[in-house]
C-alpha cells in the first residue's frame, strides 16, 4: 500500500493580477468560463480554445504571454495534457523570441510539470534544472525555491527520498524569514511529513504535518481555499496513523478531511482518496458501517477521473475487505483486476501491491505470484537506484566509495595477517615490480605521445610551407606568362599583321619564322604546366607520406600485423587541410586503442573513395566488446568529435571475440571542388 500524496500547488491558479483591460472584451469571459468547476469538461475546453484564438492574434508582449499562461493553467486543471504541452511549448518559443528570461524560466517549469505528470522523470528533471539556473541568475528567490520543491516532488515520486529531502531543505534555506513565500513553507513541511512517513519515522512525520497545518491556521498566510490544502494535510496525517496501526485516530482525520467545504467539486481526486482511506481504516478497526459502499463511491470517482493508481489501490482494498468477509470469489476477482490494470499501465509499485494481495487470497498459486513479486521488486529497486543517480547524489556516492575503500583496506590487512610476514614481503615485491613495469609503459606512452604531437605539428608546418611555395610559384608563373609569353605573343601578332602589307613572296619566310617562335612559346607554356602538375603531386604525396610514416612507426613498435591500403583514386587535393589533420589524428587514436585494448593479431587501415565521400575503415581481429553496455572512453569520444568536425558519420561495430570495425565517412563534394579547383 502506498500514499498518493497531494501537495499544495498541484492545481494551477493564477499568479498575476487581473488585467484591467484585455485585447478583446470576450477574453476574460472565456477564461472565466473555462475555469468554472461546475462547467462540463467539453464546454470548458471549447471556451479555452476560443480564448486561445483571441490571444494568438495579439502582439508578442508580456500581456499576451500572461494570457497564454492562463490558458495553459486551465488546460492543466482539465487534465488536457496534449493542449497543455503545446501551449506551454508555444509560450517558451515566444519568450525566447523576445529574450524574456522570467517567462522562459516559467515556461520551462510548466514543461517540467507536464513531463512529471506523464511520469517521464528524466525529462522533467532537465526542464526543472534549466529553470533553476535562470531563476538563480536573475535572483528570483521565490521561484528558485519553488523549482527546488518541484524537483523534490519529482525525486520523491521516483523513490529518491534522500535527494528529495535535500531539495526541500535547499528550498527552506531560501524562503526562511520570507513572509511572501509562506505558501511554499506549507508545501515544504507537507512534503517532509510525507518523506518521513515513507521512512517509518512517524513522530517526525506528524511533527512536520502539524507544522503544515499551523501554516494554514495563520490568517496572514494567503492559501486559497480552492487548493484544499487542509484536506490534504488531514489526509496525510490520517495516513501516518494508518502506518502506525492506530486506525481510530486515522479515521478521525479522514472524516474531518471529508468535511471540508467544496472538497468533492474542487478536488475530486482528493475526495476519493479520503473516502477510500476512511473506508479502509474502518475495515481495519472492524467498523463495517457504510462498507463496502464507501469503497465503491471512491472507485466510481477515480474511474471517472481515470486515476489508474487510485483505481488499483481501491480494488486491492476491496479484495482485502471481501477476503475478510470470506467472499473468496470477489476477493480474487478484485485482486486480479488490480493486477491486470497495473500490468497494462506498467505501474511496478502497484503491481507489487496487487501481487501481494492476490497471493494472500489465492494461496494455491502463491508461489507463482511470489516469484513474480521478487522479480519485479528487484527491477524496481534497480530502476530507483538508476534514477537516483540521474538526480545526482554525489556526496552520498563519495561516502560510499570511501566506505568501500576502507573495507578493502581491512580485507587486505586481514589477508596479510593470515599469510604472515613472507606473504607480505612477496606481495610487496610483486607490487614493486608491477609498478616499475607500469612506469616504464607509461614513460613509453608519454614519449610516443610526444612523437605523435611532433608529427602532427610537422604536418601542419609542412602544409603551411607547401601553401607558401604554391603561392610563390603562382606569382612566378603569372610573371612568366605576363612578362615572357604574353609579350612575345603580342610581338608576333603585330608582326603577323604587318605581313598583310608586303608582297607574299617576302612574307612567306617571315611567316615561317613567326610560326617557329609560336612553337617555342608553346613549349614554354607546356613546361610551366608541367611544373604546376608536379607541385600538385608533391602536395598530395606529402600527406600520403605522413600517413605511411605513422603506419611504419606502428609496425616497428608493436608486434601487431598492419595492413594498409590507400585508394590511388582519392583526390587529396580536394580534401581540406582541416579534414586531413582530423583523419590523421583519428588513425593515430584508433591504432593506440588497438594497441592498448584489442589484443589483436592483425589491424587493417583502408582509405577508399566513394561518390562524394571519403571512407576510412580501421578493422582488427581482437577481443571486441559489447557496444551497448560498454561505456565509451576518451579515445572513442575524441574520434567521434573529430568526425563531427569533418561533418562526417562515425560507425562502430564490435562483437566479443570477433573484433572491431570502425568506419568514418567524410563528405567530399567532388563536383563543387573540381569547379573551384579548375577556377
From TrEMBL:
Pfam families: HATPase_c, TPR_10. Keywords: Coiled coil, Kinase, Membrane, TPR repeat, Transferase, Transmembrane, Transmembrane helix, Two-component regulatory system. Its EC number is 2.7.13.3. It is an enzyme of class 2 (transferase). Residues 511-538 form a coiled coil. Gene3D superfamilies: Histidine kinase-like ATPase, C-terminal domain, Tetratricopeptide repeat domain. Residues 476-670 form the Histidine kinase domain. The chain crosses the membrane at residues 415-432. TPR repeats lie at residues 186-219, 231-264. One of its GO terms (molecular function) is protein histidine kinase activity. GO terms for biological process: phosphorelay signal transduction system. InterPro entries: HATPase_C_sf, HATPase_dom, His_kinase_dom, Sensor_HK_TwoCompSys, TPR-like_helical_dom_sf, TPR_rpt. It catalyses: ATP + protein L-histidine = ADP + protein N-phospho-L-histidine. PANTHER family: NITRATE/NITRITE SENSOR PROTEIN NARX-RELATED, NITRATE_NITRITE SENSOR PROTEIN NARQ. This is histidine kinase. The lineage of its organism: Bacteria, Pseudomonadati, Bacteroidota, Flavobacteriia, Flavobacteriales.
Amino acid at each position: 500500500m502506498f500514499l498518493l500524496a497531494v501537495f499544495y500547488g498541484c492545481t494551477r491558479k493564477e499568479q498575476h493580477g487581473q488585467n484591467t483591460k484585455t485585447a478583446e472584451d470576450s477574453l476574460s469571459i472565456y477564461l472565466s468560463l473555462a475555469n468554472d468547476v461546475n462547467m462540463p469538461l467539453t464546454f470548458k475546453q471549447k471556451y479555452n480554445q476560443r480564448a486561445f484564438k483571441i490571444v494568438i492574434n495579439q502582439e508578442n508582449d508580456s500581456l499576451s504571454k500572461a494570457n497564454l499562461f492562463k490558458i495553459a493553467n486551465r488546460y492543466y486543471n482539465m487534465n488536457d495534457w496534449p493542449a497543455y504541452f503545446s501551449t506551454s511549448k508555444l509560450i517558451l518559443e515566444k519568450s525566447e523570441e523576445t529574450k524574456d528570461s522570467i517567462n522562459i524560466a516559467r515556461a520551462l517549469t510548466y514543461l517540467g510539470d507536464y513531463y512529471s505528470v506523464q511520469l517521464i522523470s528524466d525529462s522533467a528533471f532537465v526542464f526543472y534544472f534549466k529553470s533553476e539556473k535562470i531563476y538563480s541568475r536573475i535572483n528570483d528567490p521565490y521561484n528558485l525555491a519553488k523549482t527546488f520543491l518541484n524537483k523534490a516532488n519529482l525525486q520523491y515520486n521516483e523513490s529518491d527520498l534522500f535527494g528529495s529531502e535535500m531539495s526541500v531543505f535547499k528550498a527552506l534555506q531560501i524562503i526562511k524569514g520570507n513572509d511572501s513565500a509562506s505558501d511554499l513553507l506549507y508545501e515544504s513541511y507537507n512534503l517532509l511529513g510525507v518523506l518521513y512517513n515513507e521512512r517509518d519515522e512517524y513522530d517526525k512525520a506528524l511533527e512536520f504535518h502539524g507544522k503544515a497545518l499551523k501554516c494554514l491556521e495563520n490568517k496572514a498566510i494567503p492559501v486559497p481555499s480552492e487548493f484544499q490544502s487542509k484536506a490534504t494535510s488531514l489526509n496525510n496525517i490520517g495516513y501516518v496513523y494508518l502506518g502506525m496501526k492506530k486506525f481510530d485516530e486515522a479515521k478521525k482525520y479522514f472524516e474531518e478531511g471529508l468535511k471540508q467545504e467544496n472538497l468533492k467539486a474542487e478536488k475530486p481526486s482528493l475526495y476519493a482518496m479520503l473516502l477510500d482511506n476512511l473506508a479502509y481504516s474502518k475495515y481495519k478497526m472492524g467498523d463495517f458501517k457504510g462498507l463496502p459502499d464507501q469503497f465503491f463511491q471512491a472507485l466510481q470517482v477515480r474511474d471517472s477521473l481515470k486515476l489508474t493508481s487510485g483505481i488499483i489501490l481501491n480494488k486491492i482494498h476491496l479484495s482485502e475487505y471481501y477476503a475478510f468477509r470470506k467472499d473468496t470469489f470477489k476477493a480474487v476477482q478484485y485482486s486480479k483486476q488490480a493486477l491486470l490494470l497495473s500490468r497494462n499501465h506498467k505501474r511496478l509499485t502497484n503491481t507489487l501491491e496487487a501481487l501481494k494481495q492476490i497471493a494472500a487470497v489465492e494461496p494455491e498459486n502463491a508461489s507463482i505470484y511470489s516469484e513474480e513479486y521478487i522479480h519485479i521488486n528487484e527491477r524496481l529497486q534497480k530502476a530507483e537506484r538508476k534514477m537516483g543517480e540521474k538526480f545526482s547524489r554525489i556526496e552520498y556516492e563519495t561516502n560510499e566509495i570511501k566506505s568501500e575503500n576502507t573495507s578493502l583496506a581491512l580485507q587486505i590487512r586481514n589477508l596479510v595477517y593470515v599469510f604472515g610476514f613472507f606473504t607480505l614481503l612477496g606481495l610487496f615485491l610483486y607490487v614493486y615490480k608491477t609498478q616499475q613495469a607500469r612506469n616504464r609503459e607509461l614513460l613509453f606512452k608519454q614519449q610516443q605521445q610526444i612523437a605523435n604531437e611532433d608529427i602532427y605539428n610537422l604536418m601542419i608546418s609542412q602544409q603551411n610551407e607547401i601553401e607558401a611555395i604554391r603561392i610563390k610559384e603562382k606569382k612566378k608563373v603569372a610573371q612568366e606568362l605576363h612578362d615572357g609569353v604574353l609579350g612575345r605573343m603580342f610581338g608576333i601578332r603585330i608582326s603577323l599583321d604587318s605581313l598583310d602589307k608586303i608582297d607574299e613572296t617576302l612574307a612567306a619566310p617571315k611567316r615561317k619564322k613567326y610560326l617557329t617562335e609560336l612553337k617555342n612559346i608553346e613549349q614554354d607554356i607546356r613546361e610551366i604546366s608541367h611544373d604546376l602538375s608536379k607541385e600538385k603531386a608533391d602536395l598530395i604525396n606529402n600527406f600520403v607520406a605522413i600517413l605511411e610514416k605513422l603506419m611504419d612507426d606502428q609496425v616497428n613498435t608493436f608486434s601487431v600485423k598492419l595492413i594498409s591500403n590507400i585508394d590511388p583514386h582519392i583526390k587529396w587535393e580536394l580534401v581540406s587541410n582541416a579534414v586531413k589533420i582530423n583523419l590523421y589524428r583519428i588513425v593515430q587514436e584508433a591504432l593506440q586503442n588497438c594497441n592498448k585494448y584489442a589484443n589483436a593479431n592483425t589491424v587493417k587501415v583502408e582509405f577508399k573513395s566513394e561518390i562524394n565521400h571519403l571512407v576510412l575503415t580501421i578493422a582488427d581481429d581482437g577481443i571486441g566488446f559489447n557496444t551497448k553496455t560498454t561505456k565509451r572512453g576518451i579515445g572513442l569520444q575524441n574520434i567521434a568529435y573529430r568526425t563531427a568536425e569533418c561533418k562526417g558519420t562515425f560507425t562502430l561495430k564490435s562483437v566479443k571475440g570477433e573484433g572491431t570495425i570502425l568506419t568514418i565517412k567524410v563528405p567530399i563534394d567532388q563536383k563543387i571542388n573540381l569547379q573551384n579547383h579548375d577556377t
